[in-house]
Input
Amino acid sequence: MPKYTYVAVNEKNRKYKNEMIADSAEEVRKNLRARNLNPLSVTEVTAKNQADGEEKSIWDLEIGVNKDVHTLKISKNKMLVFFHQMALMMRSGISLSIAMEVMLDSEKDKKMRSILRDISINLYNGLTLSRAMAMFKTFPTLYINIIQAGEANGKLDDAFDQCSDLLKKELKLTGKIKGAMMYPAFLLVLTLALIIVMSIVVLPAFKGMFENFGSKLPAMTQFVMDVSDFLVNYGWLLAIIAVVLVIVFMAVRKRNYTFAMWCSTVMLKIPIFGEVVRLTNVARFANMMGTLADSGVNILDSLTLSRDVIANLFMKDCLNQVIEDVKIGTPINVSMNRYKAVFDGLFTSMVRVGEESGQLSDSLKKIAGMYEEKADDSTQAMTDAMTPMMTIIIGVVIGFTVIAIFSGMFGMYGVIK
Output
C-alpha cells in the first residue's frame, strides 16, 4: 500500500503536515475531510522524492535520528510533557488524531517528532494508541497498560492523567534523593581534590627544602612525604586500577546472578543507606501498583508491572515469590508478611486493610505517600550523618598534613641552630 504526504488545514486555518498510508490520494483526502481537515496537497511518496527529502544540510542532522525510530529514547521530562498535554486535549474533547497532529506540529525535538509521526501514521492505519506506543522501547510497559485500560473504559483523559501523575511522582522522588546527595558528594570530591593538590603540588615544595638542609625528618613528616612521592610517581597507576576495578565489578554483577544478589542484599544492610534504598523502592512499588489497580489492570498484572520498577534485585526476587503465592490464591498481605526485610509490619497491615475492604488501590496510594515521606526523612538523616563525617575527614587530612610539615620545619630549625 503506497504512502502519501499531505498538507491540510483545519477550520481555524491551522496547517498540518504528515504522512498517511492509503490505497489512493483520493482516500487520503476523504480521511482528512472526515477529521474536519481541508487537504491542500497530497503527494505520493516515491523512492525518488523520498531520497530527495533525505538530502539535508549537515546542520539539520542529529546523531541517532537516522536509527530505527522504534529504538529512539526520550527523556522522562519529555515524556511527562507528552502525557500532560495529551490529558489536557483529551479532556477538552479534541479527538485523538487531531491531538497527535497538534503535538507533532508544536514539537521541536527531532527524536520526539519522529516518534509522534510514526504513532500518528499507525493511528490513521487503524492501530490503537496503546499498540502504536508499544512499538517503541522508550515507553515503559506499565504506562502502555494504563493507556490500554483507558481505551477499554473510554477514559483516555484519565489514563493520561494517571501516567502524568505517576511519572511526576517518580521524578520528584528521584530528584529529592539526588538533591540530598549533592552536598555529601561535593564534600567527597573536595576531599579527594585536597589530597591530590597537597600531595602533588604543596608537599614536593617542602620536600626539596627539607632535603637541602639534610635534616632527619620526623616519622609523621616522612610518612606524608612518602605518600606524596607515591602519588606523584604512581598516581596514574592507581587511577587505572580504580577504573578497571569498577568495570570488572559492574561486569561481574551484570553477568553473575549470585554475585548481583549478594550485592543487593548487602546494600540493604548498610546503616541508613540501606533503609533509604528499601523505603524508596517500596514507595515506588506502592505508587505504581496503586495507579495500575485504579486503572483497571488486574492484580497479577499490577504486581508484575510494579515489580519491574524495583531496582534492588533482592527486593525484586521477594516480589517474584509474592506473585507466585498470589497465583495460587494466597492473599497479598500474607505473602508479603513472609519477607519482613522488605515489607515491614505497617506496609503489610495497610495492604491487608485494603484487601479486606476492597479498596486496595486507595490503600496503596496512601502507603506510597507515607513511605515517600519516610524515604525523605531517611535521606535527610543520611545526609546529616555524612556531612559532619566528610567535614571531619577533610579536617583530619589537612590537620595531619599541616602538623607533619611543621614537625619537619621544627626539625630543620634544630639543625640550623
